[in-house]
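Step 1: inspect the first sequence and its tokens.
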Amino acid sequence: MGLGLQGSGMASARYAAQQGAIVRVTDMKSPEVLAPSVQALAGLPIEFILGEHRDEDFRWAEIVIRNPGVPWTSPYIRLAQEHGARIEMEIALFLLACPGRVIGITGTRGKTTTASLIYEILRASGAPTLIGGNVAGVETLSLLPQITPETLVVLELSSWQLEGLAPHKISPAVAVMTNIYPDHLNTYTGMEDYAEAKANIFRHQKPDDLAIFNYDNPWTRRFGEEAPGQTWFTSLEKGGSFARHTAQVEPFRFTETPMAGRHNLENILLATTAARLLGVSDDVIAEAVRRFHGVPYRLEEVRELNGVRYINDSASTSPVAGQVALEAFDAPIVLVAGGNTKHLPLEQWPERIVQRCRDVILLAGSGTTELLPAIQQEVHNQGASDPVRGIFTDYQQALAAAVQLARPGDVLLFSPGFTSFGMFLNEFDRGDKFVAYVRAL
């Protein structure tokens, strides 16, 4: 249920067919949109029902593998359960079959950067290492043939993926949790429900398993006290990392990095602590950190042109992500933001926009309708001038306006702070379009 374009649905369909199952794939997106995914599965005995979901398919199925974006409350999932079907997710099938040691990383912000850096450090150490999970374009189940008991498998895990582990009471052998902030509250009943989904990353660990938590975030600090395995905390405020129930802090040594922002130092501290606990030498870790420039779509520097730095932060789908992006730069900012709402609190984002941005271009959407009055209120509160220069329904026109406003020494920051659906397929599509536009200038 849910073929998608990013790999998870394709991997599930391929894996099920290879195991000898009779497979139907159903997705509400049109056959035209899903053509690349269908093509990737050519030659396998798979039936596709696209552009709709049919009750008959969910009555027919013995196992439904749901895509991470499909909520438990879906009437089709309920129908399948009423007819005796097992509800599974790709990541649970993977963990049940994986012979390697799994290092799982989750959190609201920073999980992709932290997972990618852990992967790069482990690879640099010479250990056989693979990366998967919530990584665009990676079919995690398709990694299984390459994995031996000696393989280290780094998995970025979303809250939705982690829900799939709960019925099996399984967690990765190594769990890393970056932070918890309000997110996805349009699909969860509240913060407790959302955070509890994340907590599956450590809930079912064994006493000799390893868990690492960010002490500076209230949610992850609390979870660190509840973890059943060997637990470590990291803290920029305390200047390093420390085992639970000890006062001795191992100092943070790996601060030489090309990445901008305090939040990236948090990510580096988590990743390097995990690597040290996995036995990697400090020399290997330091060199990997110095070489690591971050990941696409997350404060990614696309180019510098005429003295303007163009930054692609299209993975910013929540207000707190938009706020963190603004705090990463000291230069004057021309901001392109806006999109559709997930009904999350705006936090200090409007305040930071008025403080930090000389010019703001907004993309039309339900989130933008929430943001604009909050910016206007902050303009009034701060006695500042209004930085908003227009709301656009065409992203090319929006980017053209932003480019016109940018001056030498500026940062042109594409950090939407909301989801993308409507104007773009997803946050990766909008990031790719931004990069293509900037490279063509």
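Step 2: inspect the second sequence and its tokens, then contrast the two.
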Amino acid sequence: MRTLYTWLFRAAIPLILLRLWWRGRVQPEYRQRWRERIGRVPVRASRAPLIWVHSVSVGETLAAVPVIEQLAARHPHWQWLVTTTTPTGSERVRAALQPLLGGRLLHYYLPYDLPECLTPFLDALRPDMLVIIETELWPNLLATCAERNIPTLLANARLSEKSARGYGRFPRLTRPMLDNLSRVVAQYSADAQRFVELGLPPERVVASGNIKFDLHIDLGLESEAQALTHQWRGATGRKVWLAASTHAGEEEVILDAFAQLRKKFADLLLVLVPRHPQRFDSVARLCRDRGYKLLRRSDGGPPRPEHQILLGDTMGELLRFYGACDTAFVGGSLVPVGGHNMIEPAAWGVPVVCGPHLHNFATVAELLRGAGGMAVVENAEELATQIAEWLGNDSRRHRVGERGRAVAAENSGALQRLLGEIEGLAEAL
């Protein structure tokens, strides 16, 4: 079955390259560094142990940073290879890890899942261990690592019912692929059980919690968020609603809700942060076409009283944005994407509202909703009603926020358990 998969992948390469070129119209970075995607990288000269961490894009990279940070401090003789698949993930690696690791860091795009791409990549770099963040499973990648006796660990792994059904349709491909995993550290017992049902030997999986709960908000970050708070609220102390990680089809709903909210909160500031940088310009146009006075974060300077929307078109600032708002909507949830990380606003004590599509964070959403720290809405009217309820009642908003903060605190600890699993697998290095 893997042979058929490989030939189908080869047949699709022209379309994949065309898609990269097409996306490069908006993000020129997609037309750069193509040699990395076919596994052509410089030969590594060092013989030090090399830990390979694969984090697909921004979200996985942010989750990987504290893992790498703590392991790098404990094991200063280790070198690090971090691969991503997107330019935004690549930018996050350079911004967050290059200052930390310096010459100990190698960073490339993940090669395509073909033997002719993976073989030269592994020959050149000789990694000693592979850690995959969350669920990015490639049959040839795992098979090639197994053939070379490179242990592989799936970290902070999640597997929704929908994804499990998809993998279950191809058991002759899925079972051998899972058998090539050395260890799976799943987020929750339900995730672990789905891996076992798909064919992973049960002795290779453990549930440790979600490492995204181990969010450290230090004094520096608090100070930056406080400075933003003063900038955004201005002399009048205006309320701030943050709509974060939004996708196509969500901004229209958010702007409809914003129009309703402005009838009650005339000076309300909407901070709108699209998920993907290539959509910044189109979202800015949408806001202006609706008649709103918009300031882009990249323009510099604080919003003035006449600005109604601040477009978050910079990278790496969302966490401090959460600390500067009154309430937050987390996107990818009004459309069937599966939701994004609602732990971050909860950790700040900010009330969270999402749409109904939350399968990527199902357990987290259940915990927050059960504690009364999060609300789920279906449409613009419900969204406006919920935000208005919180903005119009400070004591209730604070209570809801504190419930979310308590959930985040109570569920921390997964990071240390994951570090122990990685060190146990790497003890021979």
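Step 3: confirm your contrast with the notes below.
The chain has a mean pLDDT of 95. The CA atoms of residues 55 and 61 lie 5 Å apart.
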